[in-house]
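Support request from a user on the community tier.

User writes: "When I paste my structure tokens into the form, the page sometimes reloads and wipes my input. The last time it worked, I copied everything first. Here is what I submitted, just in case something in the input itself triggers the reload:"
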């Protein structure tokens, strides 16, 4: 089966596409963060599907134009990649303050469309892994 990946278009940067993303909140496990962010950004309850930790972490420098979203002086971020397997493409309920649009794309096209190099890498890794029928959430 073809691997399709959900991408979301950022409201604060139209034409910037990405997987689900989010920030860890104090007291949460990484898994709980993933579940909460999927709910907030898509309306889906990740607990009803197969959510797996991809055991992939990326540390990167935060783009200067997004540093205002972090604590003063924070310039680097560590992201943890999770995958959410859906058995079919579902309708997504966007958070209008965060995203303008969504689309499901074959993983090769999704990897080319995302603006973040680490998002691209995670999508390509997913497509080459044994998780060949999984949707990507990051």
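"...and here is what came back when it finally went through:"
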């Amino acid at each position: 089966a073809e691997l399709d990946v959900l991408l979301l278009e950022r409201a604060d940067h139209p034409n910037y596409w990405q997987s689900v993303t989010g920030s860890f909140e104090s007291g949460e496990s990484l898994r709980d963060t993933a579940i909460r962010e999927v709910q907030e950004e898509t309306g889906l309850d990740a607990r009803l599907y197969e959510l797996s930790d991809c055991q992939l972490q990326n540390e990167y420098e935060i783009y200067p134009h997004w540093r205002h979203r972090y604590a003063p002086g924070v310039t680097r971020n560590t992201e943890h990649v999770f995958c959410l397997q859906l058995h079919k493409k579902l309708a997504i309920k966007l958070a209008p303050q965060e995203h303008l649009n969504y689309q499901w794309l074959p993983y090769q096209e999704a990897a080319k469309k995302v603006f973040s190099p680490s998002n691209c890498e995670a999508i390509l890794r997913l497509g080459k892994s044994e998780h060949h029928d999984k949707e990507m959430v990051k």
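Agent notes: The reload is a front-end session timeout and is unrelated to the input. The longest strand covers residues 50-61. The longest helix spans residues 30-42. Escalated to web team.
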